[in-house]
Amino acid sequence: MTRRHFLLKTAAGALSISAPGIRRARAAPMSPLEAELASWEEFGWHWTGSPAQKASADWLAQSASASGMRCEVQSFDIDLLSVRSCLVQDEHHRAVGLPVINHGTTTAVGISGKLALPPAEGDIALLALAPQTRIEQALAANATSASGAAYRAVVIVTTGAAPGLAPLDCISKSMSLPVVQISSEELPWLSAAAEHNQNITLVADFDRDGGTGQNVIAVKPGLDPQATPLVVATSVSGWGPCVGERGGDAVIWLKVAAALGESPPQRPVVMVALSGDELGGIGREAFSNHFSDLAPHAIGWLELGANLGARYSTIQLEADQSTLGDLLARRMSLEGLRFDRRASAPEMASERAVSRVGIKASPAPLFHLPGDRLPGAVDLRVLGLLGAACAKTVVEFTQA
C-alpha cells in the first residue's frame, strides 16, 4: 500500500467520510439543482490534489464548455500529505488525527510530555479552535507558556457546531512546530489531561509528496473584444465533501456560465474556479501569477465566496458603492433574498480600483465537517435564488 493510499485510508477513519461514488437512495426524484449537488458529492473528498478535486475540475470544465465557454484546466504544484502515523494518546485513550501539512513532523515514536492549557507550563499545548479560526494567529498567541518557554508541539481539538474532526485551513508558510488536529469528541479526556498536566504522546509522522492542484479557467469572449473584462471567481476545494461550503458555489458558477451562453456579453468574461484555498490560497496565487495583468485591467471582480446556499447561514454582500455591487444587491432583493451588506473586506483592498464585490455566507453548522453533504447541508430554495441573482447580475453588467 502506498503512503498516499494510506493517507486516504487514515483520513476516512479520522473524518468518518464514506467512500466516494456511492449515491444514497432518495425517495423523490431530484431537481436539476440537487442533481448537480449530488454529482459534486459523489466525487468524494475535495482536498486539493485529491482524485475528487481533479474529477470535479474536469466536470466543471466540461459543463462550462457545454455552455459555450472556452475552458482550460490550469495545474500547479502542491505538497500532498503522505501519512505514516498521526495520533494523540495517553495510558487510557488513543485518538487518530490529521497533521497540519505545513507544520513539523515527528518520528514514529513521537513527542511525549506534559499536556497544558496555555499559558500553563508544559511540553505540549492543547487548544480548542473553531474550524474558521485563523490557525497562524491562534498558534502565535499560544506558542509559549507564562515563563516564556516554547511548547514542543500542539494538539488542536476542532470545535465545529457538530461532533467530528473539522480541519482548519492552513497557511502557505512552513513552520517547524508539529501540530495535530483531533475530533471534538476527544475533548473531555484531553481537557482533563491538560488540567492535571498529565503526560501524553503526540505523533505526526508524515512526508510531503509532490502533487498537483487544478484551477478551471473559462472565458466567454465579448461581442466587443476591446472591452475590459469582468472576472467571476470562486473556490472549489476544501476539507471533506463540503457540499454546503463549496458545492453551492460551484453550481452558481455553472449557472452564470449557462446564462452567458444564452445571452452573449458585450465585454469578455473570465471565470475561474480555484483550488488550494484550504492550503493558504496557493491556487489563487498560481492563477494571479499566470494572469498578472488581469486584475488591474478588469472592470469588475465578482467573488463567489464560501457557504452560498448552506442551510442556517446568513448571506453577506461585501461591496463598496459601485455599479456591480449595487446591481447585485438589487437583484438579490428582487429575488426575495435577505442579506447583510457591508464595505469590502480588507483583503479586497488591492482590487477596489476594479470594483471588487464579494458574496458569501456565514459558516453553517456543518462547516468543514464530514456531515457537510446532502440532503441536510443545503437550502435548495435559497441556492436557486442566489444562482438566479448572480447570473442575472453578470448578464446585465456585461451587456452595458
CATH topology (fold) name of the largest domain: Aminopeptidase
Whole-number tally of structural domains: 2
What is the CATH class of the largest domain?
Answer: Alpha Beta
> What's the count of strands?
14
Structural class: alpha/beta
Strand content: 25-35%
Rg (CA only): 22 Å
* Elements, N to C (H/E): HHHEEEEEHEEHEEHEHHEEHEEH
Can you summarize the main beta sheet? 14 strands, mixed
Record keyword descriptors for this entry.
400 residues; Aminopeptidase; elongated; alpha/beta; 25% strand; Glucose Oxidase, domain 1
Commentary on this structure:
- This protein is of the alpha/beta class and 400 residues long.
- The protein folds into 2 domains: 239 residues, Aminopeptidase; 127 residues, Glucose Oxidase, domain 1, CATH 3.50.30.30.
- It contains 10 helices and 14 strands.
- It is elongated.
- Strands 1, 2, 3, 4, 5, 6, 7, 8, 9, 10, 11, 12, 13 and 14 form a 14-stranded mixed beta sheet that branches.
- It is 30% helix and 25% strand.
- Strand 1 and strand 2 form a beta hairpin.
- The N terminus is likely disordered.
Present the secondary structure layout.
Elements (H helix, E strand, L loop, with lengths): L2 H13 L16 H12 L7 H16 L3 E20 L4 E3 L1 E2 L11 E6 L7 E6 L5 H7 L11 E6 L20 E4 L4 H9 L3 E22 L9 E6 L7 H20 L6 E6 L7 H9 L3 H4 L2 E5 L10 E5 L3 H12 L5 E3 L13 E6 L18 H20 L1
Parallel strand pairs: 4-5, 5-6, 6-7, 9-10, 9-11, 11-14, 12-13
Antiparallel strand pairs: 1-2, 1-8, 3-7, 4-8, 8-10, 12-14
Helix pairs in contact: 2-6, 3-6, 6-10, 9-10
